[in-house]
Write a structure and sequence with these properties.
By secondary structure, this protein is of the alpha/beta class. Helices cover about 50% and strands about 10% of the residues. Helix 5 packs across helix 7 (about 155-185).
């Protein structure tokens, strides 16, 4: 057992559509009860203890990535009721009125297809008609889903294959081109959807005023931070830092790595900014420095921690 964070992303209710990995308020309550309320430290206390290397092995904190509006609408009321403060790691491009397309595309595949498998089938049909089709076929000949993203047990083989093609074979530009074609074919209004996906500046300020810790998560949320040049990485985190400091009035001291992707350059940049702790997105690493602390995805906990009655609710 090692001190760690529990990582959350998506939540659903009557206003926010369910999707892969999303949970409801009742499931969040059940998970907190299963973890043990007394084990969950207030976020500021966790930050201070971690910075001084004083965490106990069973200390836990709650963390929320990606600035999602569903977190504010569904999870935050639960935290208020239980008097729990958490870390909220925000990427800030969306606060300038722009869209972060990975999240938009996720919403598209979760809401416009009868299942995620149906989306994958349609996706590969479109890819097969592009100039990248041969490269994708060749890459998949050597692809082993048991080895790719093996540290994330909640991914299915189909999930791993999709992420391999998206991130390792196509890359951001080619993936964007495929998805833009699919979005257009379905007459999907990305701008209208985007207005409902993320928190706004006032809501983030409210979280700060209620005692939650607002931290960095990059500016544009690149899928593979470690592949960016040192200058590009610097731009991502300096702009993110500037936004968060402006919103909260204090210099951020915590962060989480988007997509669990970072390099030695990333860690050096974060140290330059005065970031004291950073979180990975899994528990796979054995030795941790203060900028790569472990987190357990809530999907790994839910099967063993949430009763069937709570899930059904």
């Amino acid at each position: 057992m090692v001190a760690h964070g529990v990582m959350f992303h998506h939540f659903h209710d009557d206003c926010h559509a369910p999707g892969q990995g999303s949970i409801g308020a009742g499931e969040l309550v059940a998970m907190i009860e299963s973890i043990g309320r007394k084990k969950i430290l207030p976020a500021h206390e966790w930050l201070e203890r971690a910075g001084r290397n004083m965490l106990q092995a069973d200390d836990i904190c709650l963390t929320f990535d990606d600035s999602l509006r569903c977190q504010f609408d569904i999870a935050v009321p639960v935290l208020r009721d239980l008097n729990i403060s958490a870390f909220f790691f925000v990427h800030t491009l969306v606060l300038s009125g722009q869209l972060e397309m990975l999240e938009v595309y996720r919403h598209f595949r979760m809401t416009r297809f009868r299942s995620v498998e149906a989306f994958y089938e349609a996706f590969y049909e479109v890819v097969a008609k592009t100039s990248n089709s041969h490269r994708v076929r060749q890459a998949l000949l050597r692809f082993n889903p048991r080895e790719y993203l093996s540290e994330y047990a909640f991914y299915t083989a189909a999930d791993r294959k999709f992420r391999f093609v998206r991130d390792e074979v196509l890359g951001p530009e080619a993936y964007h081109a495929v998805m833009q074609g699919m979005v257009a074919a379905h007459e999907f209004d990305a701008a209208a959807v985007g207005r409902r996906l993320w928190m706004n500046s006032e809501q983030i300020r409210q979280l700060h005023s209620e005692g939650h810790v607002i931290g960095l998560h990059s500016h544009t949320h690149p899928a593979r931070m470690k592949r960016l040049s040192p200058q590009q990485q610097r731009d991502e985190y300096y702009e993110n830092f500037r936004y968060v400091r402006h919103l909260t009035g204090v210099a951020p001291r915590a962060m989480s790595h988007p997509g669990n992707s970072y390099s030695p350059y990333t860690l050096a940049i974060l140290r330059q900014l005065g970031i004291r702790i950073g979180f990975r997105a899994n528990m796979a690493q054995q030795d941790y420095c203060p900028l790569e602390l472990p987190r357990e995805d809530h999907s790994n906990l839910i099967a063993r921690s949430v009763p069937a009655s709570a899930v059904a609710a």
